[in-house]
Amino acid sequence: MADSQLQMRKLWQPADPKATQAYSFMQNANRKRSRSMENWDDLHAWSVDNISEFWEEVFQQLPIIHSGSYSEVVDETARMDSIPTWFKGVKTNLAENILYWPDASDPSEATTTRKRDGAIACTEVREGCTEIRHCTWKEIRERTAVLSNAMRARGVRKGDRVAVVASNSIDTLTVFYAVTALGGLFSSSSTDMGTKGILDRLRQIKPKFVFVDDWAVYNGKTIDLCPKIGEIEAGLRGIEEVEGFVSMPRWQDKPADVSGLAKCETLASFLRSANGDKTPRFERIEFRDPFIIVYSSGTTGMPKCIVHSAGGVLLNNRKEAILHRDSTALDAEANCVLDAMLNGTRTILFDGSPFQPDLEAFLKLVSDQHVTDLGVSPRYFQTLATAKPPVIPRDVTDLSRLRRVSSTGMVLSEAQFEYFYDHAFPPHVQLANISGGTDLAACLTGDTMMKPLYTGGTMTAMLGMKVEVFDQEAGRMEGRTVLVGEAGELVCTRPFPTMPVMFWDDPGEKYFNAYFARFDNVWTHGDFISLHPQNKQFYMLGRADGVLNPSGVRFGSAEVYNSLDANFPDEIQDSVCVGQRRPQDTDESVMLFLLMKPGKAFTQDLVKRAKDAIARDVGRRCVPKYVFETPEIPTTINLKKVELPVKQIVSGKTIKPSDTLANKACLEFYYQFSKVEDLVQPRSKL
To answer: Which residues form the AMP-dependent synthetase/ligase domain (predicted)?
Structure first.
């Protein structure tokens, strides 16, 4: 781990923890439950040691629109890997909860409180920030009603799947709400995913209808998607559940001509099936019933189809937005759709590259749209910081209304924390380094408005999430925690409402192997982390399957990245660090690949300085055995760095790369390193 003094630097302090909604929630719980909680740590401890009490308080104090009643919150004696049922007897509907607000005296009744007809619900912004379209709560409710009624007329019923291959837009949002209003299951794929990757997903879930954008714009390029629609239709031919395709217009005034595509019609044509019926109808389903299918990345195999429950996601989003982020109806959130609209907050739907037409346009949009909560990735910070000259957001525009920037998807380096507060954003802005994801439709660790933030960490385990750090060397039946400060596996040892209800078309074996095969009756998330002994923040050290282990010394790739980011910001653009262990190897060797900045040379002097820095910051036994230059580092289509395929390739495996990779051709470069001795031996003889 890097220098403890750096980690202990306090970067941000909440203005008044006692003025937060979380503090009010805690005081109400104290009165009702005869508790004596005083601070965030007390609240968290109660939430994980008394899960029924805590989640019932969330259900009662932060209600969702529902009908029915429950006799118990959850069976706390049930094994975690049995996927316990929560709030049995309660029925709800996701779309109804997003589009309306529960009546204060009777949560079975839907009202427009916090979601007035004329107020703006969402704002669609296209790449370049020139196409901006507002949509009021009344409009989004009517759009959802018409599309949902059209789907009903076409035979869509509870349990049917409807998929989109589409951008982040009002049309996509409307499909999502219309499907879930009927009790159906929504699923989405990005337009820039390869056809094979899309089909790997859709062939598994067999959707009744597939809604597809007719054009896409990304990074300044305009792409006709009609050929892709044809490829998807051909790939799904023969699956009887698939009834048709609907093209959604990228430009509202000129939809593409899809008359030549089999089984495809325009959105306008499909909507005529509703006969203009704008009456909203919502089928309330069991709390545990599914509403969405999401996917694992599929970077090394067929993607898993992860099914989430409506009730669990609704309740958890109430918790995260209100108790962790202190959200109100006056906020405006960019790239945080469900959290925002569920709680009456305006959301900004941004589609495209945030770097077009230049690096400042998106930042100016944040100011112009009065964004309070912004969701980005570490790659976004890196691009701004490494530009020539560097882009300083607080110098570009007025960020006085911005109160939080959330970062997820990759490990956020300590250097990026320092950059954020020392150079980039105003000191009042909270940097929320969050971790969780698709698998659990929630965060495991994240932010709070009741504690300070220190460099490099994620502030807290989330309420209701009993996060622990387990020894990776322990056997399945003897899972045990490590000493505070030591690194290990991120696990969750108590049930939570957003555990997936199942994997689609899986009797249970894939689900069990994904989360419960590693340690008995414990959710294993796959991240390598540590808990700081002083500030009690969690430090994300990389993926557990990417943990480096030369000669028994275990450390995370993120520790290497932290060192390189801090010491070589002007020379190294990016890096990927993996372990190599081929069948013939008796020990693991660490390989480091460096992507140089334009105009900067890869030299043996740089290699020496990089090794010296890693030895100093991480440890001498953590210095890579091999350091090479690379022309490209593999990433997913959302620019998340991918280590595992590189690790497998250099360890002698031949893999079939997934279409979820944005640049899978670059993997060919790494095959030569499976015979690394042939590359370094001639030099060693000189």
So the answer is: 118-495
Instruction: Map tokens 């959290």 to a residue.
Output: 339
Can you list the residues of the chain whose pLDDT is less than 50?
A: 1-7, 683-686
CA 374-133-103 angle, to 5 degrees, is 70
Q: What is the pLDDT of residues 453-468, one digit of tens each?
A: 999 889 999 999 999 9
**What gap in Å lies between CA 96 and CA 119, rounded to an integer?**
17
> Read out DSSP for 623-674?
S-SEEEE-S---BBTT--B--HHHHHHHTT------TTBTTGGGGGGGGGGG
> Which stretches within 109-236 are classed as H helix?
137-153, 170-181, 195-205, 226-236
**Per-residue burial over 457-494, b = 16 or more CB atoms within 10 Å of its CB, e = otherwise:** bbbbbbbbbbbbbbbeebeeeebeebeeeebbbbbbbb
DSSP run (H or E) holding 342? helix 337-342
Cα–Cα dist 228/220, whole Å: 19
Tokens at 189, concatenated: 């794929």
Q: What share of the chain is helix, strand, coil (3-state, %, to 5)?
A: 35, 25, 45
Q: How far apart (Å, rounded) are the C-alpha atoms in residues 671 and 18?
A: 56
Instruction: Give Cα 188 distance to the centre of its chain.
Output: 14
C-alpha 125: how far from chain center: 21
pLDDT digit string, tens, across residues 245-254: 999 999 888 8
Separation CA 499–CA 398 (nearest Å): 40
Which residues is 123 bridged to in the sheet? Answer: 134, 348
Is the bond into 102 cis (omega within 30 degrees of 0)?
A: no
Residues in the chain: 686
Two tokens, residue 442: 């929630």
| Peptide bond before residue 357 is cis, with ω within 30 degrees of 0 | yes
Residue pLDDT, tens place only, 539-554:
988 777 777 888 777 7
Contacts of 639 (CB under 8 A, 6+ apart): 377, 379, 409, 662
User: Three-class SS of residue 374?
Assistant: strand
